[in-house]
Amino acid sequence: MSKRRILFCTSEAYPFAKTGGLGDVAHALPKALSATESVDLIMPLYQSIDRAAFSIVPLHKELHLTLGQRLFCVTLYECVYEEVRHIFVYEPLLCDREFLYGAPNAGYADNALRFGIFCHAITALLGESHYDIAHLNDWQSALVALLLKEKKSPTKTLLTIHNLAYQGIFECATLESIGIDKRHFHMDALEFYGSLNFLKGGIAFCDWLTTVSEVYAQEILTPAFGCGLEGFLEHHKGKLSGIINGLDERDFHPLHDRLITHPFANATQKAANKRAYLQAANLKGMRTPLFIFIGRFTHQKGLNLLTQILPSLAQEACNIVILGDGDASFQTPLLEVAKNHTNIRLHFEYNELHSHTLYASADFLLMPSLFEPCGLNQLIAMRYGAIPIVHSVGGLKESVQAIKDFDPKTPKGYGLLFTHPSAAAFHEAIQEALNLYKERKKFAKIRKHNMACDFSWRKSSVKYSTLYTKLLRSSE
Ligand code: ADP
Asked: Which of 219, 246, 287, 342 is a plausible cystine mate for 225, CB 3.0–4.6 Å?
């Protein structure tokens, strides 16, 4: 039987461009799916992508698009990376920018047009080349679902929401300039409190909708997590399901990780990473726990909770390292605490190499996210023998089991959870972690168990394949 043709549409994919979890997923999932499907990935050719390093070559193909009154000429490029064909969309307005979406906390003013061009380019390509499924991701490619329905295309669409907090909301006046018919501007499609909402359009027109964990798929139907779309999602819940993310087995494998200095298969070997890191960071404390936080500096990641517990945690015999970038207003209170403590290191940057070094060195990961669609950090941490301390929400609730329920026979990973997003509850969980660290045998047993768990894409990619089958059957 010939493989189904899938076009995986994304605004970012590691290692070409990554700002967060979507970049990791867009790299690993198409690879995992390739076992059973024929997957091509399509993304913008941002100026930051090194064409020569990845042998990206022109496809000698142009797409001529009309959006409102303007004509755009889009050129396509391609390369094969880790067995997956990557198609790149180049158009200066879309691609020639310093950032992917805008400076931290401020999207580019013309993002509607930029990603409107991206969606029209994908739709034009789908008009010329046969694909069974267009797998869309987040608001940046969501409008493809609407454009394909308009064209009565036979290609089925699956839209995956990686984070409902980002919907692509713009002034309604932009509608015409991005080549979308005004008749779609109503409450059952693109209209959202008088504005234009890309993601809502995608939800309305896609054939199926997924989020990146089953728990988050339920949570987004409630006002606390629905970001204003809970009612609309409730209406569409008949085509909504959750599939938990996995990790790329090559990039996040402690024994094969090319970014760490001491690849490891067990806790004893892992210790070499901690030793080297502490030395490089001028810290002492091989026998005290190393806590890390890695993440975007946004309200979502629970930085307020982190800032609140930091002074008391810093008084314990431990080291704490924080790596993150984003909203600079979160830096000041962290700097304030750090100046009084020699066991805190702050790194306000995005640094892939540094993040891998930290996962490899750490004993505990702090992840007090207020909401978390899936979260990859906790999976990476468990794989690398760092025990996660997480707020029990979304994908964190689904992927981390409480240590008090430890059962060596379950294939799931363990960590410390707190239910209420308060500094007191977070603090309590950290206290448990400090106690656990003193129980050397128990700590070692859990660390070993977590490192052996399967956090790969194996099971979840099969679930996506099953969904594709279901979608294609529905059109027979
Ligand atoms: P989100 O997509 O909300 O940012 P995820 O947990 O899904 O969060 O994925 C985050 C990914 O980005 C992980 O691979 C994490 O290691 C990485 N990451 C986040 N912040 C940084 C940073 N400052 N430097 C390096 N990697 C980072």
From this structure: 219
Residue 83 burial (CB < 10 Å; 0-12/13-18/19+)? exposed
Q: What proportions of the chain, in percent to the nearest 5, are helix, strand and coil?
A: 40, 20, 40
* Ligand 1 pocket member 61 (CB < 6 A): no
In angstroms, the Cα distances linking 374 to 7, 192, 379, 398, 400 are 23, 25, 10, 8, 11
Q: How many CB atoms lie within 10 A of CB 475?
A: 10
How many angstroms does the Cα of residue 295 sit away from the middle of ligand 1?
Answer: 5
Taking the CA of residue 295 as reference, the ligand 1 atom at the shortest distance is 20
Q: Using alpha carbons only, what angle is made at residue 167 by residues 165 and 172, rounded to the nearest 5 degrees? A: 140
Residue to substitute in 101, 248, 350 for testing ligand 1 pocket (most ligand atoms within 8 angstroms of CB): 350
Total-model pTM: 0.96
Q: Is the CB of 302 under 6 A from ligand 1?
A: no
Give the C-alpha separation, 370 to 392, whole Å. Answer: 9
CA dihedral over 443, 447, 453, 455, signed as positive or negative: positive
Point out the ligand 1 atom lying closest to the alpha carbon of residue 22. 2
Residues in Cβ contact with 219 at an 8 Å cutoff, skipping those fewer than 6 apart: 225, 226, 371, 393, 394
User: pLDDT 10s per residue in the chain (476 long)?
Assistant: 689 999 999 999 999 999 989 999 999 999 999 999 999 999 999 999 999 999 999 999 999 999 999 999 999 999 999 999 999 999 999 999 999 999 877 899 999 999 999 999 999 999 999 999 999 999 999 999 999 999 999 999 999 999 999 999 999 999 999 999 999 999 999 999 999 999 999 999 999 999 999 999 999 999 999 999 999 999 999 999 999 999 998 899 999 999 999 999 999 999 999 999 999 999 999 999 999 999 999 999 999 999 999 999 999 999 999 999 999 999 999 999 999 999 999 999 999 999 999 999 999 999 999 999 999 999 999 999 999 999 999 999 999 999 999 999 998 899 999 999 999 999 999 999 999 999 999 999 999 999 999 999 999 999 999 999 999 998 76
The reply to whether ligand 1 has any atom less than 6 angstroms from the CB of 385 is no
Any bridge partners for residue 89, and if so which? 44, 76
Mode of pairing for the β-strands spanning 413-418 and 400-402: parallel
* Minimum-distance ligand 1 atom for the alpha carbon of 212: 7
| DSSP-derived secondary structure letter, 247 | B
245, 294, 352, best to mutate for ligand 1 pocket (most atoms within 8 Å of CB): 294
395 lines ligand 1 (CB under 6 A): no
